[in-house]
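User: Can you recover a sequence for this backbone? Please restate the input before giving your answer.

Assistant: Of course. Working from this structure:
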């Protein structure tokens, strides 16, 4: 019996490796997409010619200070 995707859970280490859009990274970190492009170009991953993202761990690492 096949399981649905809802039953599949990633380990915390793998969850941090997922790629999120620059808009999602903006919501998490507070850095605008333009700031990501100017100051953290090394962390941007080009998924297609028009889509870019960053690893969730980078967005959290550069996130808003509490």
């Amino acid at each position: 019996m096949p399981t649905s995707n809802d039953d599949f859970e990633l380990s915390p280490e793998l969850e941090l490796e997922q790629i999120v859009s620059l808009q999602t990274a903006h919501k998490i970190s507070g850095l605008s997409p333009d700031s990501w492009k100017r100051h953290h170009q090394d962390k941007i991953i080009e998924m297609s010619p028009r889509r870019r993202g960053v690893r969730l761990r980078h967005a959290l690492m550069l996130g808003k200070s509490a």
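That completes the design. The longest helix spans residues 22-29.
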